Amino acid sequence: MRHDSRLSRMLHVLIHMDRHDGSATSEVIARMLNTNPVVVRRTMAGLREQGYVHSVKGHGGGWTLSRPLEQISLLDIHRALGSPEVFAIGLAIDHPTCLVEQSVNAALQDAFAEAEAILISRFGNVTIADVARDFDDRFQRSTEKPGPGSCH
């Protein structure tokens, strides 16, 4: 089963964008994510529509943040990505008239709904700046002792 990693990947990109001067082109972001620039533009367009990033076309153009990371929550980005499903597991719908399937789905549906509500609430309480501060702490600790752990 494939996981949707767009949320974590976009958070990664936004923190990098915050840490670097100037704009980031779709090509640079695509290399960072090991994907195609078209995929980056499509994904970033949702963030632009919600006012989290800005783009400039042409030579010297690219993507920049429109707001400080303190003003963007994980929930904001989740919604800007189209509110993708948060769980890879789901209900069976092979035999909707089967009473066993109905009972199983009723039990699971309540648990899934409760877990999703907790997760979405947590997303709303965490800003990207909170994540960036955690990065800063980890980076500081990693420079105090040698070891792997660098990215892009």
What attributes characterize this protein structure?
2 strands; 152 residues; mainly alpha; Transcriptional regulator; single chain; DNA-binding transcription factor activity; globular
Summarize the structure.
Pfam families: Rrf2. With 152 residues, the chain is mostly helical. It is built from 6 helices and 2 strands.
List the helices and strands and how they pair.
Blueprint: H1 6-19, H2 26-33, H3 37-49, E1 53-56, E2 62-65, H4 74-80, H5 99-125, H6 128-144
Antiparallel strand pairs: 1-2
Protein name: Transcriptional regulator
Pfam families: Rrf2
GO molecular function: DNA-binding transcription factor activity
Percent of residues in helices comes to: 55-70%
Rg over alpha carbons: 19 Å
- What is the name of the CATH class? Mainly Alpha
Total separate domains: 1
Q: End-to-end distance, in Å?
A: 27 Å
Pfam families: Rrf2
InterPro entries: Tscrpt_reg_Rrf2, WH-like_DNA-bd_sf, WH_DNA-bd_sf
Protein name: Transcriptional regulator
GO molecular function: DNA-binding transcription factor activity
Describe the structure.
It comes from Phyllobacterium brassicacearum. InterPro entries: Tscrpt_reg_Rrf2, WH-like_DNA-bd_sf, WH_DNA-bd_sf. GO terms for molecular function: DNA-binding transcription factor activity. The chain has 152 residues and is mainly alpha-helical. It has one domain (6-144): Arc Repressor Mutant, subunit A (Orthogonal Bundle). It has six helices and two strands; from the N terminus they run H-H-H-E-E-H-H-H. A hairpin with a 5-residue loop joins strand 1 (53-56) and strand 2. Helix 4 crosses helix 5 (99-125). The longest helix is centred in the C-terminal third of the chain and has 27 residues, at 99-125.
